[in-house]
Amino acid sequence: MLIVSVLATIYQYRYTRVERLRQLRVQATVLAADITAAVAFNDRTAAQEYVDALKLDPRVDAVAVFNEAHQRMAAFQRSGSEPIPDVPTGAQPLKQGYLLASAVARQGTTPVGIVYLRATPVPWSVRLARFSGVILLTLMSVLMLTLVTVAQLALTRANEKLHQRAAELADANARLLEEMEQRSRTEAALHQSQKMEAVGQLSGGIAHDFNNLLMVLKSSLALFGKRIRQDDEVIEQLAERARAADAQSDVSAAREVLHGVADLAAQRRTRQQQIQRYLQTAQEGLDKAASLTQRLLGFARRQPLSPKPLKLDALIRNIQPLLEHSMTSGVKIRYQLASNWHVLCDSNQMENAIFNLVNNASDAMPEGGEITISTADMRAEAARSDLDRALGDHVRLSVADTGVGMDEETRAKAFDPFFTTKPVGKGTGLGLSTILGYVMQSNGSISIDSELGRGTMVHIDMPRALADVATETA
Amino acid sequence: MAISFHRCRPAARRTRGAGARWCIAICMISFALACCDAWAQSESDIPLEYAIKATYLYKLAPFIDWPPGAFASPDAPFPICVVGEDPFDGFLAHAIAGRAFGTHPFVVRRLDALTNDADCRIAYIGRLHSQSLQDALAAVQGRPVLTVTDSGTDADNGSIMQFVIEGGHVRFDIDNSAAARNHLSISSKLLNLAAVVKNNG
Q1: Which domains does chain A have, with CATH numbers?
Q2: Cα A119 from Cα A21, distance rounded (Å)
Q3: Do B169 and A42 touch (CB under 8 A)?
Q4: Where are the beta strands (DSSP E) in chain B?
Q5: Is A69 within 8 Å of B63 when comparing Cβ atoms?
Q6: DSSP 8-state code for residue A420
Q7: Is residue A170 very low, low, confident or very high in pLDDT (cuts 50, 70, 90)?
Q8: What average pLDDT does this structure show over A355-359?
Q9: Is the model's pLDDT at A456 over the cut of 80?
């Protein structure tokens, strides 16, 4: 803007000068036109009258009229100014700022003379007034520039402050992230230690279970051994007394030995029963140990599934008698089977899962109660939650009890391996986690709905199998 | 700034006659400073007054509105006729040498009498011997001829222009109605300059 105002100043100066010169030329032309006759016919008086008229214009400094013969016809100049010379006869340089215009006096095409006009430069006051506009503009632009600069500085400072603040925030953020990382590390460590604890618990649990079983075995065998030794002792005694009686040929003593043998024989059945009991106990213990080992192995090895399309209703009805049989007294099972679709699943594992759930339900109701096993076909469109919809068409198997229920903490940990609320020796904590693994492998989902004191519902959702294959006959 | 200058020249005292001529001669000295080059180069010794009159004759040409048809062709000459006695003695011919009115070069013609077939644009009528002034003027009446008579002759003699000596200067009277009769229109600048402008008759 400064440049523009400077350019404007220069232009105006030049333009003014040009304009003034033009005006001067016009005046000269007019004078020349009027004065032709006077010049042609040497009428100096008339010519001077014309020339004198220009004295009225304060800007005109001097006028001179020459005829063809370069004689001065008429002229005037302001006091202090030089008269205008006839140019060809000696040109003097113009004083600074003065303007000189000339015009040929012509009548038609005939030149009769020449007219010169000289104008004063613009007085400084006038020039100043004219330029005041531009000066004002310049000042304003300078002012604006200053203001803008100041504003810019203020902005920069504010910007710096902002940057500082941002840096501080970034720092705080970094610290926060660090803390979070540390927290997660701590959590991981905690988790790890919890797992170790769980493992410890498991090992402890299993060890305890095995220990018990071994104790059972040990005591049975001990008793068995004791019994055998006892019998051996009696037989030894009798054998000795028989030898003595034989040596002494003591008939009464021999008769006592025979009585003793008869007694021993009479006790044989009870002895056999006792021994049977001991052996059975030992066997039971071994069986339990084997089954426990098997379950552990199954859990560890993640046995391959052999899924087949089957109807859950049919499967459940197949195992119904077994379920009823394994129930403690006071627990009733109710069936609400309403599924018609097939699902793809491994029948053994499904049976095991149901057994497990029913066991858990029954354990949750020590004073008796009711277990409800229900199935239902769930359509994807009618699903109420996004989770259900994502599953597509599926069959829901639910096992509900009216037992003690679970609190939030327990429910959250229910599927954790080796987590159990049952007393030590009764539960391994592997049941639900095994079911979870199996259900996941079968592309299904499992969920627990439970409230302390209200009971528990476990839902297994298995995706619908569309292949129409004949149901598996159990 | 346009200057419109219409002046009415007051009628000044006209001096005619021999005594005035002497006075004129004195007053013209100031003129003689950087004199007309034509006059300076004159070969004959004519009075300054007639030198000036001679120059006026051709200088009048641009101030007249010549009607169309006044010139036969664009490069036809502009004849200045000197009728009767010639007071210029070749000075006029010298003065017009090389000059032209636009495309019409000036030529001088010497005539003893003015006839109606005389080809003149400007006719300076001097002392006539074979014709009366009236006859001379009548001969060219209605034709585009500027008739000029000398000072010293009667005023209102019917010519369009008449030289007069006034205040030591050669000036002229103009008869505008006579000009109109010859279908000539005279520039107002000239009229302004004239000593007397007659419009009647």
Answers
A1: 2-122 (3.30.450.20), 303-465 (3.30.565.10)
A2: 8
A3: yes
A4: 64-65, 78-83, 100-101, 104-111, 122-125, 146-149, 161-166, 169-175, 185-186, 196-198
A5: no
A6: -
A7: very high
A8: 89
A9: yes
- The model's pLDDT over B139-166, given as tens digits with 9 standing for 90+, comes to 999 999 999 999 888 888 889 999 999 8
> B34 and A69 in contact by Cβ < 8 A?
yes
CB atoms within 10 A of CB B82: 23
Domains in chain B with CATH codes: 18-198 (3.40.50.2300)
The beta-carbon neighbor of B63 closest among A27, A69, A107 is A107
Work out the minimum CA distance from A53 to partner chain B, whole angstroms.
8
What residues of A are in the B interface, CB distance below 8 Å?
23, 26-27, 30-31, 34, 36-38, 40-43, 46, 49-50, 53-54, 57, 69-71, 107-110, 112
At A126, list the tokens: 């006038």
State which residue of chain A sits closest to B34, comparing Cα positions. Answer: A71
pLDDT digits (tens, 9 = 90+) for A242-252: 888 888 888 88
Identity of the residue in A38, A109, A112 whose CB atom sits nearest the CB atom of B193:
A38
Give which of A24, A25, A35, A42 to mutate to test B binding, by max B Cβ within 10 Å.
A42
Q: Give just the sign of the alpha carbon dihedral A224, A228, A230, A231.
A: positive
Complex ipTM over 0.95: no
Distance CA B184, CA B160 (A): 9
Q: For chain A, first and last CA: distance in Å? A: 99
